[in-house]
Design brief:
single chain; alpha/beta; Rossmann fold; 2 domains; 8-stranded mixed β-sheet; two-stranded antiparallel ribbon; 10 helices; 12 strands
């Protein structure tokens, strides 16, 4: 009798395991289709065939502060570049907090098809995940997640001061990443290494980024003398904070000399107007910056949300809706964003086209 009971128990266990396995299998099939349905990529407008390549480089000068192993910080960089021989401007992209190396895949590919070498940086532990050239996967650091999404949303001087200190750390890390990657690229270009590096015109360099990546790109343009144009895709210019006093950040008064395009949603502009009404004398840092920059333009997208400046609403409408999109058509919006980015870089990096083609509102 005991043997029969054991067999029955064993059979029940296998039935349960089979059901669990079936559920996992079904989830593996259904969930990816739900989260990442098939979609139509924006069509590139350039004549160049585009090649892609991935590298992971170790910055021997920096210890990885997100781990306790003593390892050096490693940066993974993805390139899009023309297949045809030539001499092309270099453009470097930086994703936002919890973004990924392909956050603006269509933008990078569009630029490459029009004659640019484009490099996208994956910032480990700030990215949702990074898969390096050897297949190692690193996910976002939970303390960083808590810092970004922490707080009650209510204003207090102490909360603002803590956020200011965190933002200083984020900008220091991001700009160090970008300096290292850009210096590595330029070194390889000088040596005329194979692939993308042999095609780079080191005299023409542009930067762009989304959100936190836009902020660090702007800051890099202030710290280097080899940057010719910068595009900030809805990023608060955190690097322009120089101090904290009386509950608010102090802004950099020194004029910015690199041409900058500031791309924002109307929703953000509405929020800024509300905050200016709530806090007498307060001004949004990007506006303060723009008034003192020698060449500053802003483009506003009506109906867009924060993630409409990336490819995520196309790649995963479900996730994008959870994280923040507008009611604009996602495909049309990113195509317009890509056109704006191309127009701006063509003008400043190739001396082609006209900025009169840029509308102030899309």
């Amino acid at each position: 009798m005991k043997v029969k009971e054991n067999k029955k128990t064993s059979k029940k266990i296998w039935i349960v395991l089979a059901i669990i396995a079936g559920i996992i299998l079904a989830a593996a099939v259904v969930i990816p289709k739900l989260l990442f349905p098939a979609y139509q990529e924006p069509v590139v407008t350039g004549d160049h065939q585009v090649q892609e390549e991935l590298f992971t480089w170790v910055d021997e000068s920096r210890v990885e502060t997100f781990s306790d192993t003593g390892e050096k910080r490693a940066l993974t960089v993805k390139f899009w570049y023309p297949k045809e021989e030539g001499n092309y401007p270099l453009v470097v992209f930086s994703h936002g907090a919890f973004g990924v190396i392909d956050s603006n895949y269509s933008t990078c590919k569009e630029l490459a098809s029009n004659g640019y070498v484009v490099a996208s940086i994956a910032h480990p532990y700030h990215a949702m995940f990074v898969e390096d050239a050897n297949g190692k996967v690193t996910i976002a650091d939970m303390d960083f997640v808590k810092q970004v999404y922490g707080g009650s949303g209510e204003y207090s001087e102490e909360a603002e001061r803590q956020m200011y200190e965190s933002e200083k750390e984020w900008m220091a890390l991001r700009t160090a990443d970008e300096h290292f990657v850009l210096n590595t690229i330029l070194s390889k270009a000088k040596e005329k290494e194979e692939g993308a590096f042999a095609l780079i015109d080191a005299e023409k360099i542009g930067l762009f980024g989304h959100s936190m990546g836009g902020a660090s790109s702007v800051q890099l343009g202030r710290e280097r003398d080899d940057i010719d144009a910068v595009i900030d895709l809805e990023g608060t210019m955190l690097g322009e904070y120089t101090g904290f006093e009386n509950g608010f950040e102090i802004y950099n008064e020194e004029p910015y000399t690199v041409p900058v395009l500031d791309v924002n949603s109307k929703a953000v502009r509405d929020d800024i107007e509300r905050l200016e009404n709530e806090h007498d004398g307060w001004q949004y840092v990007n506006d303060y910056f723009g008034q003192r920059a020698t060449d500053y333009r802003e483009v506003v997208f009506d109906g867009a949300g924060h993630l409409n400046f990336t490819d995520l609403p196309l790649i995963s409408p479900f996730l994008a809706k959870m994280l923040g999109v507008g009611d604009v058509d996602a495909g049309e919006c990113i195509e317009n964003v890509n056109e704006v980015v191309l127009t701006f870089f063509d003008y400043y990096l190739k001396n082609e086209g006209s900025l009169t083609n840029l509308k102030s509102v899309y």
